[in-house]
Amino acid sequence: MIRLILGGDKSGKSDFGLQCLYEGVSPALLLATGQAQDFTFGQQILDHRLARIPEIPVKETGIELPRLLEKSILEYRSILIDSLDFWVFACHEQWEEAQQALLHSLSLVPDEIQVTIVSCEAGLGPIAASSQVRQFVRRLGALNQAVAAVSDEVCLMVAGLPLYVKKA
Question: Does the keyword Kinase apply (predicted)?
């Protein structure tokens, strides 16, 4: 079962993703894609780490998300990927191959394994003036659409409330 949780910054998507992970079958794993590039984000990562149940292992993925997901579905029953937007940042020039690899990895998820994926729903605001930001928003939007297409459930978080777009 694949679940995609979308939302804006501070919409409650990571908290809802953790709740889904905690309610899933053990053993559970968190695949974290974000890496601190500045003090503020480092503090946010620390806050998330302190809020989690310490018994659930965390693996930092970088661009290796597809490979780690394939390995993890053999060992864990519930997996949380938080979040696709930071993974898109990590992919850079390998974007096309990385996106195809992730979609292939998701196609290998058995029905009895719960994979919850968190991602920002980008592009709801004004069009960015920077070509780099536009490229990122377009890549993330295309990835979100592709992942939503293979997901059993899609949820949009608004002000901490889940709105189901696609229900299993």
Answer: yes
